[in-house]
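User: Please predict the structure of the protein below. I'd like the answer in structure-token form so I can feed it into my own downstream comparison script.

Assistant: Understood. Taking the following sequence of 192 residues as input:
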Amino acid sequence: MNVANVAQAQHVPSAVVSSLRANAESNRYGSGFVTIRHLESGPEAFVVTNHHVIEYADTVELQFDDKSTLGGCQVVFDDSRRDLAVIGCEGLARRNIPWGIGPGEEEVRDQDDVVAVGFPAINGEASYQSSRGHVSNARYKDDNKLDWIQHTAPIDGGSSGGALLSKDGRLIGVNTLKIGHRDNVYFAIPGQ
């Protein structure tokens, strides 16, 4: 299961609109991004993040760049094996989201430049972070035969669920973990 399949399963087209922070009831910070489904009746929005960000939450509170919040959001899709979750929240589509991130259309290759974005906490407060790196293994397979994008763009705790972007700002994956006993080894769920 990858991000594109989750969006398709939820009938959400791949238009990625904004990065944001997700703060579960357990007060754990994580990152995520909004996907918009455009309907005749108006836009419908969902947040894509990691399973481990929302794992123990019945409801999720979203906090945006401007510190405004949107509470009472529900988990509408959760895949613990793939570490992927989708959050639905009434009122999310009505937010004024001024910029967008489109999905990557080209195949991810080794040595492609990437940017990791997220909101890891500093002194207990979420803080925006972006970092540069490159793809070090475009199709890493783990013991469960799941595909991952291995990259060198640093991510920290709280960056989980944040977007991994191509050099032209297109979504290529969802950051999910780093390997603690290695230098510069980070993994993202493939976006395609």
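That's the full token string. Residues 66 and 124 are 17 Å apart (CA to CA).
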